[in-house]
Amino acid sequence: MNKITRKFFAILLSCMLVVAGVATPAKTTDNTVIAAENVAKTGTVTMTVERITIGQGYLVSPVQVEIQNGDTVDTVFKRVMDAKGFKYDDNGYLASIENADTGKINIPAEISAMPDTTVWGNPNPVKAPTNTANDGNSYANKGLGSSSYHTMAGWMFTINNVFSNEGAASTPVKDGDVIRWQFSVYGYGADIGSDTESYTGIKKVTFANKDELIKEAATLVNNKTMMKDADVKVEYNKAIKVLEKYNPSETEVKNELTKLKNVQKDFVKKTTVKKASVKGIKNVKGLKAKVAVKKIKGVTGYQYKYSNNKKFKKAVVKSTKKSTLTTKKFKKNQKCYVTVRAYKKVNGIKYYGRWSKVKAVKIKK
């Protein structure tokens, strides 16, 4: 093994290094925040696991991960994969991930057109893989890892769009970081933007920075209320499609980031409900109270809550489109306490404003 080969192995293994030793959290199938163990958290990072170079998109789409003191790229990776139920072979470096290969590849033409190179011990030129001419994948259990589809393939990571010179276990993380685990199918990372030209002769592909869009998507998907909105969900899916493109333009990525932020602003505008206020409350015949609220423009209706005690124990709650409500019968000399909030119904979902100040009336007749 010559000096160049030894240097390459050192760099490649340090980029992909993952060391075991992380407690296993509860499994999750969605992309809500993945929690740290029961210790004080120090922030949140965003992580993805990507198979874009073989046309299989995300294995793990953008997800937020809580971090704690001492966390590294290694511990964050395991926290996510364990929570989602993935098995992986670390063996000193990330060799493979089970159930990560669908078996259907669609290698981007830009990768297949990359120049031939040589691999140590083989004087013959090595060609870039295509959908019809590649080394195949021999891993069991649909594994995807080192040498899958090409002898130069393997898993690598970036942190804040930079390939680390250290291994995953030696790369600390901090609040706000974006970690992307990416499968490189050719050029020992040249196809995902790593500079390996000095020992492969292959120029790296230059990409738009996806980190901000990745972070925005991860933050949004964790907002379950927003994700119920049809417009928000459509735009989120569009963002994921842009992120799963092999090499979208900087303009396309920036435009989608703007659209994703704007659809959230629009959601806030259309679902924001002003705080209601009780216009008046009076005792009416039949030991009842009649409540009137100040009308609010653009709301669907009002939700009234009333009780015979200030703490609203066993309170009656009633929603109506009307700005007045007559209560059920009280006992004589009891007090009727009332609070009201307005609501909007958007795409079949109710969004509520804040409860009004409590008002009361004594029941005398």
What keywords describe this structure?
23% helix, disordered N terminus
Kindly state the percentage of residues in helix.
Answer: 10-25%
Order of helices and strands: HEEHEEHEEEEEEHHHHHEEEEEEEE
Poorly predicted parts: 1-26
Order of the strands making up the biggest sheet:
2-1-10-8-9
Strand content: 25-35%
Quote the distance from N terminus to C terminus.
Answer: 100 Å
Radius of gyration: 29 Å
Main beta sheet strand tally, sense and closure:
5 strands, mixed
Oligomer: single chain
- Overall mean pLDDT stands at 91
Number of helices: 8
Kindly state the number of beta strands: 18
What characteristic shape results from the CA principal axes? elongated
Structural class, judged by helices and strands? Answer: alpha+beta
